[in-house]
Write a structure and sequence with these properties.
With about 230 residues, this protein is α/β, with parallel strands linked by helices. It has nine helices and six strands.
Length: about 230
């Protein structure tokens, strides 16, 4: 479908290549044990996962700061669980979470296989809203850093997906055009609609089993990329 037009493939990182939920759960398990937080991990994650998505949406929309995101996503969950945690401990957990997160490096199934397949044929890049200090560590520690020519993050760009500027910056850095570019990501608003607004082709990795839509083609496994490229 894209084989004769696409020269550059842009990937989101978290929830698309890097298995954020699995690595995040392992990180919380570690820091809860080390800090004697006596909350059952499944109970915590049941509340935390949707709360984290909601706070990230606010962060993308410039409605909260990075510091507020890191604090409030923990504070709100402990409050919901009626488990009192002092602010000092929440800030300590937040710092340790960021520090430890990139030490766990589970990827989604077939990531290395599909990158090996694509690398000889296309230039590969990353566009991520993640924090600059951890995204490079994730790529390096999971042994996929070398696949990518350009790594564009929101702190470098000064804006977050779906802002057009970050996608335009990625095109300039990659020295390519939108009509020759394909964006692959999990977030419909940030990755797919954001990229399409600038003229990219798009492929939606339905990592969260979300509802079907007609904005672009949808895949449930990264192996399916071979159908399009």
């Amino acid at each position: 479908m894209f084989k004769n037009v696409v020269t550059d493939v842009f990937f989101d990182l978290d929830h698309t290549l890097w298995d954020f939920e699995k690595n995040s759960a392992l990180t919380f398990e570690k820091i809860f044990q080390e800090n004697a937080i006596e909350v059952a991990l499944p109970d915590f994650l049941e509340v935390y996962i949707p709360a984290n998505f909601a706070f990230w949406k606010l962060y993308r929309e410039e409605k909260i700061s990075k510091e507020d995101l890191r604090y409030q996503r923990l504070k709100s969950v402990f409050d919901d669980l009626k488990y009192p945690v002092p602010d000092k401990t929440i800030n300590k957990l937040s710092d340790e979470y960021i520090r430890c997160l990139s030490s766990f490096n589970h990827l989604f199934p077939n990531v290395t296989e599909i990158l090996d397949y694509l690398k000889p044929k296309y230039k590969l890049h990353i566009i991520t809203n993640g924090f600059q200090e951890v995204q490079e560590k994730k790529l390096k520690n999971s042994n996929i850093y070398g696949y990518f020519d350009q790594i564009i993050d929101s702190e470098m760009a000064g804006v977050k997906k779906p802002d057009p500027f970050i996608f335009e910056l990625a095109l300039r850095r990659a020295e390519t055009r939108p009509e020759n570019s394909l964006m692959i990501g999990d977030n419909l608003e940030a990755d797919i609609l954001g990229a399409q607004a600038v003229g990219y082709h798009a492929l939606h990795f339905n990592a969260h089993q979300g509802p079907k839509h007609d904005f672009c083609e949808i895949i449930d496994d990264l192996h399916e990329i071979k159908t399009f490229l």
